[in-house]
Amino acid sequence: MTLGDLVLKVRSKNAGPFWVTIDIFCDKPDVFDRLTAQLQTDDVARLYGVSPDGLKRFDIPDLRVIKFSLPRPVVQGSVHDRDMHGAQYAALLEELALD
User: Fold this and answer.
1) Given pLDDT bands bounded at 50, 70 and 90, which one contains residue 57?
2) Which terminus of the chain is more exposed, N or C, with fewer CB under 10 A?
């Protein structure tokens, strides 16, 4: 089972020219509880190739949302930017295998 199979939606988007935000929307409280316990910040940092200290995590129980913010590898809109809107970052987390 992948994270994308378990949750309602995984979305990523720009959080300014230097950051990307990834939101994981859980439709049930038990799914949110499972993910907050199972999904480790260090694993997500490794998946995106960033330092765990550079990855920000926000667990929002009232909305059943887990949010990660990470620095973009290149500045948004630069000649080397392959994802101007940050929309493709969600795919990596959606495909993450869960136990």
Assistant:
1) very high
2) C
